[in-house]
Amino acid sequence: MIITIDGPAGAGKSTVAKRVARRLGLPYLDTGAMYRTCALKALRLGLTRPRDVLAMFRRTRLRFQGRRVFLDGREVTRAIRARRVTDAVRPLADSPIVRREMVQRQRALGRRGIVTEGRDQGSVVFPRADIKVYLTASVDERARRRHRQEGGSLLGIRRSISARDGADRRRRVGALRLPRGAVRIDSTRLTVAEVVDWIVGQALTLTGRPADN
Length: 213
Ligand code: DC
Fold this sequence. Notes:
- The protein is an alpha/beta fold.
- It has two domains: 1-12 and 118-213, Rossmann fold (3-Layer(aba) Sandwich), CATH 3.40.50; 28-109, P-loop containing nucleotide triphosphate hydrolases (Rossmann fold).
- Helix content is 53%, strand content 15%.
- The strands form two sheets. It has a five-stranded parallel β-sheet with strand order 2-6-1-7-8, with helices on both faces.
- Helix 1 packs parallel to helix 9 (192-207), helix 2 (31-45) packs across helix 4 (83-94) and helix 7 packs across helix 8 (154-170).
- The radius of gyration is 17 Å and the shape is globular.
- The two termini are 19 Å apart.
- The chain binds 2'-deoxycytidine-5'-monophosphate (DC).
- Residues 9, 31-32, 35-36, 89-90, 93, 118-120, 164, 168, 174 line the site of 2'-deoxycytidine-5'-monophosphate.
């Protein structure tokens, strides 16, 4: 079974996707972490041209182990969340050639079933997914959630989220949009458990398995 969860930054995709994956016994893929890992290595090597980044990425080993991310054998779980990495991702995520490579790797990883989250998973990478979710929440709520997790300036976080929303929607390839056939869930007033239960319920209905918590 393939379940895609797309949506803007801070909508709760990772938390929801991880829990859904655990409940259904499926692997979980954070595609944002793939872009972040690529950006981290490009930063370390001083690469900026998409062609150079692509050549580097083709020789790069990525490994996901639960919540942990490994780049060429070294753990980068925390390093990829740094502000400078978040800032460096955008040009890579806007590059059609880098995206094409990401899409291929994501399809290979998801071949045998997956819960995958990102911006283009239901629209581009797995257009025939069994369940497609577009998870969103108001900008204010998404900023508050990030602020609770990471601290810092609420206003600054809100500005950065709005800027990323714009960039994610405007890019020429892989732009964030409601995938065809996706269910739009606005989580502004929902708990994580409510969203997870709904998706798991849909999945169990499709497979005919009884619900177990
Ligand atoms: O979800 P995130 O904040 O970790 O994503 C990091 C960046 O990667 C963000 O700028 C959007 C981009 N991204 C993308 O373009 N396509 C995806 N499938 C996942 C993330």
